[in-house]
Amino acid sequence: MAVNNNNKLLLITFAICRLIVTVGLTVLPELLDVGLEGRLSVDTWELEAASVDFGRLSRGVPSEVVHPATAEDVARVVKAAFESALAVSARGHGHSINGQALIREKKGVVIEMGKGGSGVRVCEKGMYVDVWGGELWIEVLSATLEYGLAPMSWTDYLYLSVGGTLSNAGISGQTFNHGPQITNVYELDVVTGKGELVTCSEDRNSELFHAVLGGLGQFGIITRARIALEPAPRRVRWIRVLYSNFGRFCEDQEYLISLHGKPGRERFDYVEGFVIVDEGLINNWRSSFFSPSNPVNITSLNADGGVLYCLEITKNYDQENADSVDEEIQGLLKKLHFISTSVFTSDLPYVDFLDRVHKAELKLRSKGLWDVPHPWLNLFVPKSRIKDFDKGVFKGILGNKTSGPILIYPMNKSKWDPRSSVVTPEEDVFYLVAFLRSALDTETLEYLTNQNRQILRFCHGSEIKVKQYLPHYTTQQEWMDHFGDKWTQFNARKMQFDPRRILATGQQIFQFHP
Ligand code: FAD
Question: Is residue 404 part of a domain?
């Protein structure tokens, strides 16, 4: 009884505090008459939640948070914001690193896309799914699996929103074969920076369609995406093999991605890899894979310059080809040059494979290691310079403590539509190198941030023409350099679709003048 009363008292105190803080915060006059089916909020807790992101490196408190119930709600808010030049940021799941979905201006609105909207509707006959822009990929997967179907191209982690990843590209080990997620979209509904709700596709309002894909939220807010589906496999054979020779590792990865477009039995379904400079890491983060029954000891494997490379591949299979899958895998592995004693295999349901990073998330959360600063750096490195990158960065700048996984895998440029807004290196094949690091204290944060700068300086100094993925710059000149030849088009599209530059100002690409 005493406990109940205490709890009640606590709740009442909490509610009063919340009321006191919230009083004085009023709905922006610009949005007073928009008439929403959803709701507007100036609740301090909601404003606070919308003022940080996964990176925990930036902060920006919005004046208001909008929870739209429909695409028309989004259009009403953006129209009102357009008329009064108010900054507006769509927020998917807030998993950006550098404040890309935040409002940094004194006044501005975050449209919280996560809740409400039209949900997920599968069209079995058309082999596509219509998805609300704020929906998470994990929800898309569970809805489509009910029909035995699934999207073809993924990100490693599924708790990201459809609108958020389509604003970047959406890449993973399937990209070499299916292209990034933005290559697998048939149609979009988009609210432009003028507050117009427009349906667009390759054939209809195509300029807007291509602009928005990889467009960093600059041209409109995606309220619906129509995404291509394929029959979902049931199980996955997941294989990791190790290399001590970087040249061999790259040759094999490049060989495997050259098999894109071949029938399923003649290629792997997923090709990724990672760099191991830190033994603790391989037996921990993202990986109950090697340990405890298969612990990896780097020193025993004669790592080249203390560095090992792990190729990660998968083969999907069903009841029908369960008998031939081993033979197909052996046939492919035979052509590779890994350390022969280092084959680690696991077998699991397709969903568990796709949702693998969530398991790591839960582990990190339970240790209080998830909500910490993440000074991540993602680079696309041209194939012709990847060995120089290895020498200068993996075997040079990094040292032997990485503070998080370092992914490396190649992709085929032919699978990226040049009409989209995203930029990639000039060469036919380029690598993603992703430094996915966590900083548990200020000292480490400073150390890793400096190291990121050092890596970028090294690339610049050695004329390795990298492009940042999930790019972060703070001056327009840097953005112009990033887009290169594409800048003129990017700028023209901005003037056409968001002439008052009110959208996604957190990206810091265009100057916002209220
Ligand atoms: P947010 O951070 O909310 O928004 C990102 C940007 O998109 C902002 O500018 C925002 O204004 C804009 N935006 C959001 N929603 C919309 C919309 N509906 N319409 C238009 N613009 C919108 N990326 C990969 O490609 N592959 C990976 O494997 C991968 N793994 C990741 C794993 C983790 C643990 C994390 C944290 C991130 C990962 N990412 C990966 C990066 C991720 O794709 C991007 O950070 C993406 O932007 C996050 O989606 P979000 O929904 O949280 O977007």
Answer: yes
In sign, the C-alpha dihedral spanning 297, 303, 305, 309 is negative
Q: Which residues are catalytic?
A: 95, 156, 272
Task: Give the per-residue pLDDT at 308.
Answer: 93
What is the number of domains present in the chain? 2
504: pLDDT strictly greater than 70? yes
- 155/159 Cα distance (integer angstroms): 9
Q: What is the span of the domain harbouring residue 370? A: 235-468
Domain CATH for 402? 3.40.462.10
Ramachandran assignment for 219, one of left (phi > 0), alpha (psi -120 to 50 degrees), beta (any other): alpha
Give the pLDDT band (50/70/90) at residue 291.
very low
96 C-alpha to center of ligand 1: Å?
A: 6
Residue 256 resides in a domain? yes
CA of 156 to the centre of ligand 1 (A): 12
Best residue among 91, 182, 411 to mutate for probing ligand 1, ranked by most atoms within 8 Å of CB: 91
Of 232, 259, 283, the one marking the end of a domain is: 232
**Is residue 215 located within the same domain as residue 312?**
no
> What value does the mean pLDDT take over residues 237-264?
97
Reported as a pLDDT band with limits 50, 70 and 90, residue 83 is very high
Q: Ligand 1 centroid vs 456 CA: distance in angstroms?
A: 22
Q: How far is Cα 109 from Cα 47, in angstroms, rounded to an integer?
A: 10
For residue 104, the SS3 value is coil
pLDDT classification of 288: cutoffs 50, 70, 90? very low
Which residues, including other chains, have CB under 8 Å from residue 316's CB and lie 6 or more apart? Answer: 233, 235, 236, 264, 269, 350
264 plus 122 within the same structural domain: no
- Give the distance, in angstroms, between the CA of residue 61 and the centroid of all CA atoms in the same chain: 23
2 confidence band (pLDDT: 50, 70, 90): very low
- ipTM given for this complex: 0.99
Closest atom of ligand 1 relative to the 212 alpha carbon: 20
Q: So what's the pLDDT on residue 18?
A: 52
In this structure, the answer to whether residues 131 and 75 fall within a common structural domain is yes
Tell how far the Cα of 163 is from the centroid of ligand 1, in angstroms: 8
User: In b/e form, how buried is each residue of 476-487, taking b as 16+ CB within 10 angstroms?
Assistant: eeebbebbeebe
In which residue are the tokens 């025993």 written?
300
Residue 95, in any domain of the structure: yes
Q: Ligand 1 pocket check: which of 161, 198, 223, 438 to mutate, most ligand atoms within 8 Å of Cβ?
A: 161
Ligand 1 pocket by C-beta < 6 Å: which residues? Answer: 53-54, 89-96, 100-101, 113, 133, 155-157, 160-161, 163-165, 167-172, 216-217, 221-222, 470, 504, 506-507
Domain final residue, candidates 428, 450, 468: 468
Across the chain, mean pLDDT equals 92
* Residue of the CA atom closest to atom 38 of ligand 1: 157
